[in-house]
Amino acid sequence: MATALMQGSDAVAEACVAAGCRFFAGYPMLPFTDLLESMSRRLPEVGGTCINVESEIEGVNMVLGAAAAGARAATGSCGQGIALMQEAIAEAALNEVPFVVFNMARGQQDYFQCTRGGGWGDYRTITLAPKDVGEAVEHTQLLFHLADQYRAPVILYGDYLVAHTYMSVDVSPRQYGPLPPKDWALDGSRGGTGKSRQIWTWAMGKANDPGPGPDAHWRRLAEKFDSIAGQEMRHESYLADDAEYLVVSFGTAGPFVDYVVDELRAEGMRIGSFRPISLWPFPERALAAAASAARKVLVYEVNAGQMIDDVRLSIAGRCPVQFIGGVSIDGSGMRQGDLLEVGSIRQRVLAAVRQEDER
Amino acid sequence: MTHIPTDSAPDIPAAKVASSSAPLQLSEEHHLCPGCGHPVAWRLLLEVISELELERRAIGVVGHGCYTNIVRLADVDFLQCLHGRAPAVATGVKRVQPQAAVFTLQGDGDMASEGLQEVLHAAGRGERITCIMLNNGVFGDTGGQMTAATVVGQRTKTSLDGRDPASHGHPIPVADLVARLPGSVYVARGAVNNAGSIARTKRYLRRAFELQMEGAGFGLVEVLTMCPTGWFVATPEGPDYLEDRFEPTFPVGELKTA
Ligand SMILES: Cc1ncc(C[n+]2csc(CCOP(=O)(O)OP(=O)(O)O)c2C)c(N)n1
Ligand code: SF4
Ligand SMILES: [Mg+2]
Question: Which A residues in the span 23-42 are in contact with B, Cβ-Cβ below 8 Å?
Answer without folding.
Answer: 23, 25
